[in-house]
Design brief:
Blueprint lengths: L3 E6 L6 H14 L7 E6 L5 H8 L5 E4 L16 H6 L4 E4 L2 H5 L5 H13 L3 E6 L3 H5 L3 H12 L11 E5 L14 H24 L3 E4 L7 H5 L6 E4 L6 H16 L5
Parallel strand pairs: 1-2, 1-8, 2-3, 3-4, 4-5, 5-6, 6-7, 7-8
The structure holds 2-phosphoglycolic acid (PGA).
């Protein structure tokens, strides 16, 4: 069964109380998630335990925004997969553009996190995407290729079903971001499918690829209809529960009319 993937990362915005209230509202709007849809929420670390309680029985998947690359050790300030699992986390987001470009994380570090997460049976959402300069220099696909091959280095084919990719062009994310044209997204997602296929064959082509970056109520239906887009990863437009719900409904209805459904 093909699935539609939808999710949000609330970055460093919602505190614990706001996260729990957000989940409460979301559950009111979405009492039941369709079987062929995976909905995930990625709140702040300090909200995880409360969020897990608030999500019980909802079918929504709880994720963490980052993770250290070891299970334990002298890594002040880091959080291990074992600790994340204690809070109910099932999914970990790795390599968001803000981690790479503001906090200076490298492909090598993302790779260590990916391997450690998979070893501990956490699902991985690996974020990739080119900067504006790389796009303008015609380097987008080369950047994606190197981020994917480096980020997934040593991940065996047997573990690849635990990975999802979020394609988020750096220049499309946040207040200053502009969403790319559908044709541009199609080309990048097609390139990603090809790279994953080269690396992992049939299993690689099945890895879900979500689009993220300035997704909103107006463009979400168009974006989900772009070939090779398996879901949407949303920031600002998802942080109001009712608005997120409206986007989810529209996207799901549209997706159900597509041949991939
Ligand atoms: P945005 O954020 O939807 O607010 O552009 C996307 C992201 O950072 O993943």
């Amino acid at each position: 069964m093909n699935k539609l993937y939808m999710g949000t990362n609330t970055k460093m915005y919602k505190n614990r109380e706001e996260t729990v209230e957000y989940i409460r509202e979301l559950r009111e709007w979405i009492p039941q998630i369709p079987e062929n849809m995976e909905l995930f929420l990625i709140p702040s670390f300090t909200s995880l335990e409360s969020a897990d309680r608030a999500l019980q029985g909802s079918g929504m998947v709880l994720g963490a925004q980052n993770m250290g690359w070891e299970e334990r050790g002298a890594y002040t300030g880091e959080i291990s997969p074992l600790m994340l699992k204690e809070t109910g986390v099932k999914l970990v987001e790795i390599g968001h553009s803000e981690r790479r470009h503001i906090l200076g994380e490298t492909d090598g570090q993302e790779n260590r996190k990916v391997l450690c997460a998979l070893k501990n049976d956490l699902k991985v959402l690996l974020c990739v995407g080119e900067t504006a300069e790389e796009k303008d220099g015609g380097m987008a696909d080369a950047v994606l290729r190197s981020q994917i091959s480096a980020g997934l280095r040593s991940v065996p084919v047997g573990k690849i079903s635990g990975v999802m990719i979020a394609y988020e062009p750096v220049w499309a994310i946040g207040e200053q971001g502009t969403p790319p044209e559908a044709g541009y997204i199609r080309q990048r997602h097609a390139a990603l499918k090809e790279i994953l296929g080269e690396l992992y064959g049939k299993a690689g082509r099945k890895v879900p690829i979500l689009y993220g970056g300035s997704v909103n109520e107006k463009n979400a239906e168009t974006l989900i209809a772009v070939p090779y887009v398996d879901g949407l990863f949303i920031g600002r437009s998802a942080w109001d529960a009712e608005r997120f719900y409206r986007i989810i409904v529209r996207v799901y209805q549209k997706w159900c009319t597509l041949p991939v459904c």
